[in-house]
Amino acid sequence: xxxxxxxxxxxxxxxxxxxxxxxxxxxxxxxxxxxxxxxxxxxxxxxxxxxxxxxxxxxxxxxxxxxxxxxxxxxxxxxxxxxxxxxxxxxxxxxxxxxxxxxxxxxxxxxxxxxxxxxxxxxxxxxxxxxxxxxxxxxxxxxxxxxxxxxxxxxxxxxxxxxxxxxxxxxxxxxxxxxxxxxxxxxxxxxxxxxxxxxxxxxxxxxxxxxxxxxxxxxxxxxxxxxxxxxxxxxxxxxxxxxxxxxxxxxxxxxxxxxxxxxxxxxxxxxxxxxxxxxxxxxxxxxxxxxxxxxxxxxxxxxxxxxxxxxxxxxxxxxxxxxxxxxxxxxxxxxxxxxxxxxxxxxxxxxxxxxxxxxxxxxxxxxxxxxxxxxxxxxxxxxxxxxxxxxxxxxxxxxxxxxxxxxxxxxxxxxxxxxxxxxxxxxxxxxxxxxxxxxxxxxxx
Length: 445
Hints:
The protein is of the alpha+beta class.
């Protein structure tokens, strides 16, 4: 993309309402614009990152054997009355009456709707196990929306639901989700720590939240520092292998890590003193096993092997896709702006022309742009007639991991400058070597 043809409304000044780094930088980098309290328009740069995260989530869900679908944002209140949650959920639920005086709601979650779909079409244990998921806009009427996309009212979320014949099968689904989430977050450049959590209004005896450590996190967390040494890496996973999934779950959850809601000071004191940590965390996902809570209330039954009807065991699993963008920025930024991990960057690299209008510099930038594009990469070419300092500031603000700088002086020596946004280190390479280096960096992602 040529920047002269792109819509990137960057701001020089920080809006007064932005209290945390991610909110400030998303506004300044032209990623979002507030429409009303807690509701944002996603401008091209922000939308591009949102789609990248969505694609990673889809890929990892499908890899784990889960089936994508899409449910509506508006739901019938009758389903929520059937489960008993319509009056219990609270004022965060936006309730609506349509023109025929039917009670509706803007869905904050989808347990009732997916259970209704399941009971309408599945009647035998032979159709199990089954996990369905979708990624969809949701709404919770926060009393004090703040921190930009971190605690907005409208948000983009993946929620999945497993249906199993037995508790044992459902707990395997739970373990499978935990493993798939670990892989998902690492692909995004995040270390998300699974922590024992509270079931809240969704319910369930088994639940883990995934939290990214950040000073602006809304939760206080207590953990053994050994958990930050764990890495999923490039290990191969057979999601049908119960023992392997259980082993990985135990590896990542055996060390103490809890939110303030479930913190146990006695157990925490058993952690070696030099490894005890108290910090803040940003929740980016949660998994639940809640047994037959919804299937019994809503008569979601299947015929078992003995011919008798039994309620299915269920769980739900969520990832806050839009919230993840704020979490990534909170975990990866500096005074100049965002620093995107390579796995989620909106553009693979930036090209800065130091002397727009110079015949040789223009030709070299055009050649770089075409070479990178031909390799399936997506560069952002700053071809504006803007001073060099302004171009560098824009690139630093929007946080592309790599920048290729082209100027007449370097071209006389046959080189361009390749700069890492994260380290600030630069090296001079021929244009061909710079293209090769960028291609190598992204080859494994």
